[in-house]
Design brief:
This protein has one domain. By secondary structure, it is mostly helical. The chain is built from three helices and no strands. The relative contact order is 0.18. Keywords: Membrane, Transmembrane, Transmembrane helix.
Length: about 80
């Protein structure tokens, strides 16, 4: 298997999934800041936006976790 085909399969590997989970979790930091700012300014619309964004982050992490469980031992980079 060539290095290029392994690189293309990285997204479907455990390592790629972990990296995606880390990037998604990093987005939670921005959401937390947005919620804090909205509460400080008493801005309901911004708070609602932050809560909806947080729901998207949680959903994204749940989907990535499901993909990680699905991969199991069939890791592309290990084969």
């Amino acid at each position: 298997m060539s290095a290029l085909s392994k690189a293309k399969g990285f997204k479907k590997s455990k390592s790629g999934t972990y990296l995606s989970m880390a990037a998604t979790a990093f987005g939670a930091i921005g959401v937390a800041k947005q919620i804090k700012k909205a509460r400080a300014e008493n801005d309901t619309l911004r708070l609602v936006d932050a809560v909806v964004t947080a729901a998207g982050v949680v959903t994204g992490l749940a989907m990535l976790y499901r993909e990680l469980k699905r991969l199991g031992d069939d890791d592309v980079l290990l084969g």
